[in-house]
Every structure is written in structure tokens, then in C-alpha cells.
Amino acid sequence: MVNDAPFSHAPQLRPYQTQAVDNVIAHFRGSDDPAVVVLPTGSGKSLVIAELARRARGRVLVLAHVRELVEQNHAKYLAYGLEADIFSAGLGRKESGRQVVFGSVQSVVNGLDDFATGEFTLLVIDECHRVTFTREGGSERHAAASGKAGQRTVSTYEKVIARLRQARPNLKVLGLTATPYRLGEGFLYHRHYHGMVKGPEAAFFRDCVFEQPLRVMVRQGYLAEPRRIDGAMAFYDFSRLTPQRNGQFAERDLDGVVRGNRATPQIIHDVIERARDREGVMIFAATVAHAEEVLGLLPSGESALVTGATPGPERERLITTFKARELKYLVNVAVLTTGFDAPHVDVIAILRPTESVGLYQQIVGRGLRLSPGKRDCLILDYAGNPWELYAPEIAQARPDGESEPVQVECPECGFANIFWGKRDGDFVIEHHGRRCQGLEGGSQCTFRFRFKVCEQCGGENDIAARACGHCGERLVDPDDKLRDALKLRHAKVLRVSGMQLEATTNGRGVPRLKVTYHDEDGETLDEWFGLDTPAQQHVFARVFLRQHLRAPGSGWRPGSAEEAAAEAARLRAPDFVIGRKTGRHWRVDEKLFDYVGRYRTADTAGAEG
């Protein structure tokens, strides 16, 4: 695949760009597995693509989803003094004869016969977080590799990959992105070259072979520093809105919040004041009607609006005028998040919510490119978005405003995981990690911080699993457990509203730790533990701490009932407790954690049963 011959006209690559290229080549020399390179917006992905295309021995197809990216990537390759074809209806060119072809995915999928010769050895996909694969039966990776789509609806990128692999089964596939995750799915690759697991085993992209973190880019002076300021005096409250199945909010719901909202004039006044000494301002509105209202509040003659309905020539004219700094404010509605390059932008105003950390990173990235005299970029968020600017490696939303990235060492393999959590000084008192992300012998470490136990084999599974990954048996649904328990005469179900730990003595005067669970109606269930001997402490850690610790895997082991009661803040209560009567006494039979079922109270569970 590789042509290592020197080239006198080659542009000067930055060190991280050179490392990215070298890592890709090293990976494909030893593997045909699809790979990913992660580079922040503004880091020069086009130059990395150009260098890889130049050094490839076979033919190269570079895909992008918009014509602006096709044109941009093509231009970087031409900077080497080489020629390449463009296959894009939007650019009025459908050429496919040269060694390197830059194409728009929609045009290529409509002209696949021009790419079916088997000469293409490398497929490069820009903005690869947009790649989706349908699932039916086995893994999406194997489905794409085989080219057998069956009766399912096949995605555009999947059609291209399947066709190219029919002609050349060992086709190398490389994706580049600034945001390597998809809404509702998490990371789009399985393994990270630093030795951690990020995405599912069935992910199409197997390895992230290089990543340049945003924080490093800023520290090294390659990107402008983002300075986030959340709207305090004026903001929109989108907290009651529920996203649709695709993760986006319905326009009518957004309009219900922003249309005629008294906060809008205050917000725009705040934007104007903060941008008084700034060069370029991009405003991301929630809906078209909202954008039109915002435009009416901005200085006349200095502002413009671009939406999906703006005709192409008019859009290009407005963008050119904005880039020439003849306009200061550019309002848009979800159309300038990728493929838009205006380095002088030093204010990003976000007036819309997003459930996608990837989209949020793309929006912020519009203002991070360097420009003469530019010292930083203000990120003004008036929508209460929860995403962390410098933690794109965390694909879940921040659980609450007090959570931060914390390091949690795996007690089995020692890998330093990064999860959302809370600290008390240097001590992690809570985290939301489920499974260790470390790699052992090329496979993911099996340790789970939180888990669901299979009643058939005792195996630990992910808390959202429906079938046991060890024996294959169906895991009992929590709602079924609640209904079944409430049908029994000698069973008690508590929806836990509180948990109390007390160092006391039992009926025989022996020191014990008493754990009492309370519900809203005053009902209680108790558990008793001895902590006087190492054997008792081991049992307590195994049967109680593994589930109750707010920071599982932290290694905390109380040496007495008094210590356990004094440190009760380290523990979390279950959502439900099921008790069964044995003789005259009640014993705790089962506890349900991380409950996401239909029944919010034990009473409703009983009513449904």
C-alpha cells in the first residue's frame, strides 16, 4: 500500500500529522482491520489524507458527505503538485480514472460501476462518525465485509464498502473524525492504541490508531483556547423536552420554548456586548423561526442568516462575505457544523440544545482555528448543554453539574480508566463506570464495576444486558421480579427511599452492622453483617460492597461496623429491595440497582401484576 519515496514539493506536516500517517501505515502493514484517526476540528485532517494518498501504492478513493469537504481535501492533494480526480455531481465533475479520486458519497454510490475494478486498495472516509451500518443477525462489521445485505435497508457507506470489497476483499478502510462517537451508540471503534477498549466488539472500525486530544492541540498552540461561559442571567430552559428516537428534538417542541421567549432579547444583547471587541460571531439557533427572530435583534447590515432552505448561490455569497469580515454575525440552523472554515471566528453562541456530544464538539470547533491576532474563542452557551469541552473521550452526558472526569484504577488489571465521577480532594467518592476499558492480551479486561448477575450461572453481565454473555440464558427482567414477588403472600417489596447503617449488637449481644432499608410508607427491611474478622470482612466486601459502593473498585474495606457506619456516604442505596419471610423474620432476598423499568413505585408494580 505504501510508497515511501521522498517528494520535493510535499507540504510541511506538523509532528502529530506525521505520527498519524506513520501509525496508519504501520497498522495496515500488519492488518486489514478498518481503522480510525481522531483529530480535532482545525487540526488539518485534509493534509493527513493527502499525505496518505500520496504514499499509497494502489488506487485511493477518498469520500466525504458534502462537496465543500471534497473540494477541500482535493485542494490539499493538489498542493503536492500532483493531479487527482473529483467524482461529485455537486461540483459538476465525475472523473474516476486517476490513481486518487476524491468523491462525495452520494455521487459515488450512484455510480458504483466506475469503482468496481478491484484496483482500489485504500478507502478513506472523512467525517467517519457519519458512517452507519445496519444490523441483522451477526456483527455489522462482518455484514459489510461479506457484502451480503439480505433484505435489510443498506446504508450509503455500506453499499460503497461492500462493492469495493467484492472486487478486493482485503481493501483497507480508514476513517477520520474529530468526534469518534455516535448518539445512542457510543464510540465507533473497538480498541484504542493506548491499550483500552472504547466501543463494542462488533464495531466496524476495529482500532483507533492515532488520536490528538483537543487539550494537547490548545496547549501546543495549534488551536485557539475555548473559553466557555454559560448564560446565567438569561438562558433557555430545554430541560423538559424529550428527544426523538434519532436523538434530535422536534422543531415544534423547540419552538414551544424559544418562540417569543422573553430571554431572547436579553441573550442577543449579552452576545453583542461580549462580542464588542471580537471579529466574527457564529450563532447556532434552535429553529428557522427562532433564527429569524435572532437576526432581527442583531445590528442591521452586519448580520446574515443561513438555513437549509437558503439557495446555494446565496449561501455561498453570504459565507464569502462573512469570511471577508464584511459581516460580523452569522446565524445558522444546523447547516454550518462541518466543512465550514472561517478562522477569524472568535465567538460561538449556542442557543439550541443537543443530545449529541459529537455535534456539540463540531459546533465548538468552528471557532478554534488560529487567525492573526486571535487570542481565544468565547463559547457562549445559553441552552444548558452538559457536554465537557475537553473530555470528548467520555461519550455519555455528564450525570450532573458536579461530575468531572475521574481516574479509576481497575483492581484486576490495573488499567487507569476515565469515568464521570466526583472527588473529595484526591479521593474518588463516586463514579459511573461499568466495565474496565483496559486490554489484556488483545481482549477487553473482564472486570465489571457494576453488573447484573445471571441466576443460572452466576456470571456478571452489563447492567443493560438482556441475555447472559456466559451461558446465553435470558436474564430475568426486573419488572418480572417485582411482579412475581408481589404475587407471593410471604414477600415484601420496598421502593427504597433511604438506607441507614448502624453499629449495634444483635439479640445475643454480638457486635454487628445493621443495614436498614426504608420506603415512603415507613416499611423497613434489615440486613446484618459481622465485620470483626478478616473472613467476615471478605464476605461483606463480596456480597455487599460490590453492589453498594458509589465508587466500585476503589478498594475501600471497612475494618469494623463503626467504620462502615461512619463512612456511609460512600455507599448507594438500591432502587428496590425484595424481602421474604422465613419463620417470624424477614430477610433481604434481592436488591435491584440501576432500575430503568416501567414501575416507579412498588404500588404500581403490584397494580400491574
Give me the secondary-structure topology.
Elements: H1 15-30, E1 35-38, H2 45-55, E2 59-64, H3 67-78, E3 85-88, E4 93-94, E5 100-104, H4 105-109, E6 120-126, H5 140-146, H6 156-167, E7 172-177, E8 181-182, E9 186-187, E10 189-192, E11 196-197, E12 205-211, H7 214-219, E13 225-230, H8 251-258, H9 263-274, E14 280-284, H10 288-297, E15 303-306, H11 312-323, E16 329-332, E17 345-350, H12 357-365, E18 376-381, E19 404-409, E20 416-424, E21 427-431, E22 439-440, E23 443-444, E24 452-453, E25 460-461, H13 478-487, E26 491-505, E27 511-519, E28 524-529, H14 534-548, H15 561-566, E29 576-582, E30 585-592, H16 602-608
Parallel strand pairs: 1-7, 1-12, 2-5, 2-6, 3-5, 6-7, 10-12, 13-18, 14-16, 14-17, 15-16, 17-18
Antiparallel strand pairs: 3-4, 8-9, 10-11, 19-20, 20-21, 22-23, 24-25, 26-27, 26-29, 27-28, 29-30
Helix pairs in contact: 1-2, 2-3, 13-16
Protein name: ATP-dependent helicase
Domain Helicase C-terminal: 267-412
Domain Helicase ATP-binding: 26-198
Helical content stands at: 25-40%
As a whole number of angstroms, the C-alpha radius of gyration is 28 Å
How many discrete domains? Answer: 3
- Structural class by sheet pairing and helices: alpha/beta
Query: In CATH, what is the homologous superfamily of the largest domain?
Result: P-loop containing nucleotide triphosphate hydrolases
Overall shape: it is globular
Give the neighbour order of strands across the main sheet: 4-3-5-2-6-7-1-12-10-11
Largest sheet: 10 strands, mixed
Distance separating the two termini: 63 Å
CATH topology of the largest domain: Rossmann fold
Assembly type? single chain
Query: What is the second-level CATH architecture of the largest domain?
Result: 3-Layer(aba) Sandwich
Instruction: Report the portion of residues in β strands.
Output: 25-35%
Average pLDDT, rounded to a whole number, is 85
CATH hierarchy, class of the largest domain:
Alpha Beta
Number of helices: 16
The low-pLDDT segments are 135-152, 601-609
The number of strands is 30
